[in-house]
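If your schedule permits, I should be very grateful for your opinion on a structural question. I have a record of one protein: its chain in single-letter code and its fold written as discrete structure tokens. Would you kindly read the sequence against the tokens and tell me how you understand this chain to fold? Thank you for your consideration; the sequence and its tokens are set out here.


***
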Amino acid sequence: MAKFVYRMQGILNIKLKLEDQAKTAYSFAAKKVADEEERLVRLKEKKEYYINQKRNEMATTINVKELELVENAIHTTDIQIGEQIVVINQAKKSLEIARIKLDEAIKERKIQEKLRENAFEEFKREVEAEEQKEINELVSFRFGNGKVRQEE
């Protein structure tokens, strides 16, 4: 029996590798978003700590220098939180781009797999047609020999 060989197997292999690379890029982008969001949570916790420290300073004897330091720390943390939100938005954009690339890679791989499947179905039809032709030739040969014997 003939062996099926997909003539565009190399392209399918490349599409599979590109899909794997896109999956890897997507997972890295997702990890980056998660890490940056975790950093934002830590900054908000830090701000909350400074706010509590300010409350404690105001509840006890008021030390102006200590109060100014805490106020500056809160202000600095607010700036860091704003910057972190920008970083998170950029990471989310990168994640969306990676998702789009992954979707495209999956579509391209599926197209190649469908083409391979169609080529295999065509191969099976050709093999079946060839086998049917051989069977027909064998039957006609036998039938032809049978007539000759009967006439003798």
Q: What stands out?
A: The mean pLDDT is 90. The first helix runs from residue 9 to 59. DSSP finds two helices and no strands in the chain.
